[in-house]
């Protein structure tokens, strides 16, 4: 049985990334050891951050999908975020979603179901 998952996202500057996630409503803290590593969490969703000074935002294909209760509300909350925020839209696959690309090039797709998903 799986309990949870925490994607590990590369960032160029850990301190700046932790501040950015705090601005997005996450709690954030750095690992206390010698490695430049961080943890962010919001409403039970966890992401890990690893500092990689050679990380190139122009060539990354790092992406994460965040399911939320209300994509429009999260979009409004993230309106001042640094990076590129794209307006919510309804998708053919039944989600109201928007995307946010942060300064490290990570694509965050954020969506809420338009109707409860059907069970197999």
Automatic annotation (TrEMBL):
Alphabetic keyword roster: Antibiotic resistance
InterPro entries for this protein: Bleomycin-R, Glyas_Bleomycin-R_OHBP_Dase, Glyas_Fos-R_dOase_dom, VOC_core
One Pfam match: Glyoxalase
Residue ranges of every copy of the VOC domain listed in the record: 1-113
Sequence similarity: Belongs to the bleomycin resistance protein family.
Protein name (database record): Bleomycin resistance protein
